[in-house]
């Protein structure tokens, strides 16, 4: 009779473990989705940061040392370099929903600063429209344009 009581107790424990697992499953999925979103936001920020650095170098590469003034490349070409990765502005944007209007260019003294203000929209924001999960990502790079010694 003792063996029969142990089997019954085991079945109850297995059922209890299944219920506990079902309760914790949504929490685990939420944590995994959050980790994936943070990783995706980090990759997006890193991509934007590298695009801005590349465009800053491009903005002075043909100008540097050719004149005494602090000239930079054409602003529309610099914006195309940031968004599309090429001077012509052909192809798809390298980051979803990034446009040339998100790119700012500032010249001050012998320096040019290129800035991108981008709003990252995580996928989990699509599930609930009352909460805004948008994250602003801002990246900038400064480059010496030439002219007088800094």
UniProtKB/TrEMBL annotation:
Domain of life: Bacteria
Domain TadE-like: residue ranges: 15-57
Keyword Membrane: yes
Name of one Pfam family that matches: TadE
Keywords of this entry: Membrane, Transmembrane, Transmembrane helix
Residues spanning the membrane: 21-43
InterPro entries given in the database record: TadE-like_dom (IPR012495)
Protein's name according to its UniProt entry: TadE-like domain-containing protein
